[in-house]
Amino acid sequence: MMSYVHRTCLICGHSPWRRRFPDAVTQNCRYPSQICLRCIRKWIHVRLEDGTSWNQIKCPGTNCGQDIRTYVLPEDFARYDVLATKAVLETDPDFHWCLNPKCRSGQITTGGGNIFTCSDCGFRTCVGRHATDVPLYVGETCEDYEKRRIHKAEEEKSLKLILQESKPCPGCQKRIEKADDRSCDHMTCSNCGYKFCWLCLADFRWIMHTNNSAHQPTCRHYSLSGKKGSGDEVD
Length: 235
Description:
single chain; 235 residues; alpha+beta; Herpes Virus-1; two-stranded antiparallel sheet; 4 helices; IBR_dom; transferase
């Protein structure tokens, strides 16, 4: 039952005449609601949109701990219904959602190996062989996917190592790798011929034109001593 009374909503702070307040949000509420109907509906909507606490929507006013569905809007109830159905389906270990981003279907799979083919869109998924279901390319088997996964992991590992062991040339941005830590820090790019210090990337032509103060202050070759044109060959 709704009362048209002059109250101040604890959430929005509004208290115009005829703002609707539920007499009680749930049957267990002992006092009239201090939260207006609009804010209750908005609160339910936010909890449903979150998707993680949809089944724990309790009375926000008196901590009575009861579920509230009386005041939900039709579109929010539809959202609740979808989440509830999804939760029930996901308790079945044989149920799998289609991994096609354009498809929202799913089905129970029994038998037929590790490949699940969506009955709605035909998208193929490998199930049961990995920690999570994985999408398959057209014509790909679960074994093919495993080879592709290992190859991709090896490529990513190699790329990470290259990024760790190499630096971009300041002249052309092509990545350059130093032979070892004991080799000279005076680098010459094989692609564009740019000369620079490996440690601080300072232009070596400017170093030779001035002195070692052309290095970055944090570089171990940096020095304020020396006359113009006395830049040292970095070792």
